[in-house]
Amino acid sequence: MEEYPSKQVAENLDDPPNSRLFVVTSRSVTEDELRESFLAFGDIQGVWVVKDKQTKESKGIAYVKFAKSSQACLAMEDMHGKVLVEGTKPVKVFIAQSRSSTRHRDVEDEELTRIFVMIPKTFSEEDLKETFKEYGDIEYCVIIKNKTTGESKGLGYVRYYKPSQAALAIENCDKTYRAILAEPRTKNTAPDEYSGGAPRGDYMGGGDPVNSYAFPMAEPGNYQVMDYRSGDFTRCLMISTRAALSQEQIFALFDLIPGMEYCELQRDAYGMSKGHALIRYSNLGSAVYAKEKLNGFEYPPGNRLVVNFVDDGEDRSSPVGRMAMQLVAAQMMSAVWNGPSTSQVMKPPGFSAVSTMSRIQTDVNLPPMKKLAPPDSKAKERLFVVFSPSPLPMEVLEDVFCRFGSLIEVHLVPGRKVGYMKYADKQCADDAMAVLHGRVVNGVKMKVMLADPPREESHKRPRIY
DNA sequence: CGACGGGACGC
DNA sequence: CGACGGGACGC
């Protein structure tokens, strides 16, 4: 980078590994502004704004090189989604791909949070955790063991929640552990014995580990705290996400706070996420509350959503309007920080099912998600469901109706407000009917009944679909 | 002789 | 949408 002798720079770009940031920002942001923004996170060895060769105009991307990976990671974690310069879009911040890499895919947190270590064969997983917890909260530890004898091979994995924690462990732990970043596990796409219907993330399962991600509020001070003296509150929010989220997912999430009146995912060239989403609430309080609750929320786990206020075009210039705005905001803030009293607005942080949180709003207490039955399973029972006023999306139905087990598939009748749920087990279907009949999901009321046998091709015994 | 360096699974 | 310049150390 510019102030360093060239060769040294070229050699240092990846030294140490993962010490360089890739920053996507507005074209107007300068090198100095970037340097100023990232100054606090460590020793900056160089800042370089990529410019068009001909026009010399910034392409809106930049690299920031730190002395240490942990510095770069902390900067990424803290700055991602922040507005660097007033009036510019929130920055996206990633660890840069190594210069030798040809891939231009974002480096995911997944690749930066697990370390691989050598340990005494006498170490238990508890020993491992005790040894490495000083660098950050550990999601889990695993020791590689001989499958038959169960004896340790003296190797282990430690998964942290944040890239900076893994980087700190690698930088600072005893050299005898030989800590390095673990190669991501090869996507073993385990011949998914259940492969019917839309893809579902593992994180949708109702398992407990997921809950530790739930809300940043459970861990005060871990994430950026909004500066509620700034006065820049609006009814509009800009969501930044680094993972592929659908508009439906974002809608469902932010619709949990009453008053959402607009939601638009700003899609990228591939039509899938990556960018920002715009949310507008009918009132300032809802927006403040949504920002406070969902900024930093990991959805899906590992992908921290970033929520900022954006200008909604309202006149906030008058002192009176500004004061009123700040008053409402302060009241909401107080309610947020003071916890339990707000629970009628939104369930408190620890509430059990993140999966429910993700896209389902309902008056019924749903069991955790279950796997689908194999698509070629024989149907033992079908349910007939009538929706009012309009049918629910397939994914939502699958999410809800799979929870009683053995769901084979969801079938919506095109152009009608009815659908069929095919189950491999009669009891599961009966359970679903008992729990879901007459209930409301995402504002849609459902009648859930046993389906009549298909009328066509009824020859001998009534075939079940 | 005698102990260095090695290193990849599964929430 | 958003991925890689300019310029010359020291043998």
Description:
There is one protein chain. It is built from eleven helices and 17 strands. The protein is an alpha+beta fold and 465 residues long. The strands form four sheets. A five-stranded antiparallel beta sheet has the order 14-15-13-17-16, covered by helices on one side. The protein has a four-stranded antiparallel beta sheet with strand order 2-3-1-4, covered by helices on one side. A four-stranded antiparallel beta sheet has the order 6-7-5-8, with helices on one face. A hairpin with a 2-residue loop joins β16 (440-441) and β17 (444-450). α3 (69-79) runs antiparallel to α5 (163-172) and α7 (284-294) packs across α8 (319-337). Mean pLDDT is 79; it is low at 3-10, 189-230 and 338-357. The structure holds two DNA strands. Keywords: RNA-binding. Residues 19-98, 113-187, 235-312, 381-453 form the RRM domain. One of its GO terms (molecular function) is RNA binding.
Order of helices and strands: HEHEEHEEHEEHEEHEEHEHHEHEEHEE
Strand content: 15-25%
Give the total of beta strands: 17
Total of helices: 11
Mean pLDDT: 79
How would a textbook summarize the main sheet?
5 strands, antiparallel
Structural class per helix/strand content? alpha+beta
- Within the largest sheet, what's the order of strands? 14-15-13-17-16
Give the terminus-to-terminus CA distance: 66 Å
Any idea what the shape is? globular
Low-pLDDT ranges:
3-10, 189-230, 338-357
Radius of gyration: 26 Å
Query: What proportion of the residues is helical, as a percent range?
Result: 10-25%
